[in-house]
Every structure is written in C-alpha cells, then in structure tokens.
Amino acid sequence: MSSSSGSQQQVRVKVLFFAQARELAGVSESELLLPARLASNDLKGRLISEFHLSLIGGVFVVALNESFVEEDTHLELRESDEIAVIPPLSGGAFSGQVLVSFRMCYE
Amino acid sequence: MDTYQDLVGLESNVLNINDIIQSVTSASCGAVSTFIGTTRDNFEDKKVIKLEYEAYKPMALKQMRAVCSKIRSQWSVEKIAIYHRLGEVPVKEASIVIAISSPHRQESLLAVQYAIDAVKTSVPIWKKEIYAGHRPQWKENKECAWSTNDVNTIDKQTEDFDMGGNSHIDHDYGVSPSDEHLKINPDEIQIKADDAEIKRRIEAFISLKKNSDTSYKPYIHKTGSRNNDVENTEVCARVNCIYRRLEDSKSHIKVGRVYNQWSHQSTQSSLPIKSKDKTSNHTTALEERLCASEQFLGINKPVPKDVYERIKKIEDRLLHLECISPEYKFMWKRSTQINVDTDDESNEKEDDSKDDSDYATNSDNTTNKKRIYSTDSEDRYAKKVKR
User: Fold this and answer.
1) Whether this model's pTM surpasses 0.90
2) Which of A87, B250, B301, B349 is deepest in the core (most CB within 10 A)?
3) ipTM value
4) CB B246 within 8 A of CB B253
C-alpha cells in the first residue's frame, strides 16, 4: 500500500464526508490511521475500501486541510490533518433541463 | 469603507437580493452586474418538491474568496458579493446571488459570468433534489472537473447562460458520455433542433395522438351503470359499452372472419368417432338440446345425421348471426329475458324459428333459448329443471 520506503510512521487523520459520499459512508465524520507519506491515489483507494464508497467509484476528489489534492501527487500527512471526500460539485443554481446526449447533437 | 471589498457568505435563510445589490453599489461605479440563480420546479418531467444544499463550509468560504481574488486579477471591479443559500430551499427561491460593481459595465458583466462558472467548479457545495414520486438525487455540475460526465465534451461557449441552460447531470444515467460522443459524424445526426423546437415537436405529437383517439368515440356508446355486467366477473378486463350502428350500414361493425381451408372439421371423415353408430350415439337429452338450438337459430330441416355436422351447422349459423349483428351477442348474454327490444333482423329470425317449432320436445321455448344464450349459472339451472 504505502509507496514510501523509509518510515512506516502512521498518523491519525480526520475524514469528512459530504453529499452522496456521506450517505454511502453512513457518517459525516470519521478517523483513519494512514501512513504519513502516501500517494493521493492510494489514499483514494483506502477511502473507497474503508468507507464503502465503491458505488461512486473514483468519482470524487480529496481535499486536504481545505485544499483540493491534485491527482498523482505524494502527500505528507500530519497528525489531525483534515481529509474531505468531495463528490462532484453541484453548487450554483438551476435544475438541468437538457440531456447530455441531446447537447451533443446540437453542435 | 473599503472600496475593494469581497463579501462572501453561506446563508440558511432567504437571500435578500436587494441588500446584496445595495452592498456592492458605490458612487464611483457606473455598473452593478448581478446573477441570481433560482431553481426550476421540474427536472426531466420529474416534479421537484424541494432542494437541499450542503457545503463543506470553511472550505467553501475559502474557495469563494479565492474566486474573488481571481476576478480581481482579471478585471477592474470594485465590490464583489457572492452569497449561496444552504439547507432546504423551496423551488423558485434564489440559491445563489452574485453582485459585482465596476466603473464600466463590461468588466462586471464578464466578472459575473466568470464567478458563477468558478463557483460551480471549485466551491464544495452540493445539491440534492427531492422529487414527487422519485427517489432523491444528488446533482452534479457538468462543469465540475471530476463529475461522472466528461466535462470536456461540452463546449462551454455554447452554454446559454441567461436561459438557465446550465444542466446538472443525472447520476442515474450510469454510462458516462465518453470521448466517442465527441467524434460523432455530423452527417449521422438526424435531429438538429434546439430545446424549444424539440419540446414543441413532442407536444405536437402528443396532441396529435390525443386528438386521433377521439375519432373512435362515435362508434362506442358508453352504457350507464344500469347495464353493469356483474355476471362476467371472471374476465380480467371489462368495458361497458355497446356498438352503435353506423349510418347506411347493414352491418353494425366490421367483422373479420377467417375461412380456414383446412381444419379438423374439414377432415372429420377420417375421424374414427364418426364410424360409430350415426343415429344413436348421443342421448335423447342431447338430441333435444340440438333440436332446440337448431330451431331457435332457424336452421331448416332436414339436419345431417352426423352429430358433429349438426354442431358445425349450428356454429356456422351462430357465426353468421354474430357477423351481421355482433352487438346482440352481448345483449343476449346480459339479459335474463329473451324478448328484449330487438329491432333488427335477428328478431325476424326468432319469429321464423317459432313457426316450425314442432320438432321441440320441450314446449317451453323460453327455457330453450335461455339454455343457448344464458350464462353458465343459468345453464346449470336449466339442466336441473329438465331433470
């Protein structure tokens, strides 16, 4: 799991869930013991398996201490860091009206 | 008061649009551009009862401030206000209000457009739609970079912003549109029309179908509850109607008949049962019933000796009568009295059959007729009477 070679130091982080992820995990907040150094993709894998997020698959991003984590980055976690599972956003307004497939056809 | 002010907020109460606009208005600004996002009460014909917004609050506020600073890095605007509603939001109420003031309108207009886009793609806020009769659904902004739809397949330039064309994509489509959609050959697209036109066509089709349905109505006359067919409860579908006679028509409705060239009846000569005694292999009771049927149907004597041929003749006669007046088939069944107000040739047939009634062993004509045209229960009753 951990790609780091040297220290296998573990840290306890806080995990927040929102929207669909919150409903799948069944909690809005939890804790997780993670290697201090790990790849962002490994982190996503751990979150999916630990919190039953397979239904939304990889369709979420992770925020670390209120900042989006880019894909394929290596993370250095500290004790009490805050990780958030962010499903696709839907802030703003409107209910959609047009099907995607229709939109394709217009152009 | 600071001239360059960023006002961001997440509100659980109704967004006061006037106050927000007021807060960005300044004497040095010639323009205040606003964007007010409300929600329609329907999504793909599903009635939206209410919406629920939730946010990762501290990060959402942080991201909203980041949007403000990005606006300032691109346009010369004075005050920016971005307010988003959270919690339960009734339909038609504003869920987001953006107001930006600038000395010239061009800047604030562009800035507002950028702001709503940026909010949709970078501020952690989620919307759940609760429908009437459908399960609730978490929405996805199609602009969101990691939504289940490939954001790149949609050309943002084609979005009709003010028309509210920002579509949220339904999770339930399952299959996400992949790159293939981009490579559609334009020649293969059969329908090229905008929303309004497609909607108009669908509605025109529906109304056409509805109207064409009325063309059947003249032929069917609904009967009142008086004629409710309570006896026929074993059938799964019942329609209470009778056929109405068309003008200048001998027949009341068109009846299709299939003339089988070959059937068990046409090859019955080879049946072993026929080789039995032709005259006495049925009982007198059966003979009596056959005679009564023939008499009632107006089948002339002499009748064939073979009982199967006799039944076939009766069946043919019934088919013929059904063919010329199909409506009476059901009327006989429903009525307990035979002599209902028939005004057609079947009445004449009945009169004819009465004339040569000498063959009937049972003199009570009514009982015989009942036996032929009655329901099962009456039939059983008739048999009892006979014994």
Assistant:
1) no
2) A87
3) 0.80
4) yes
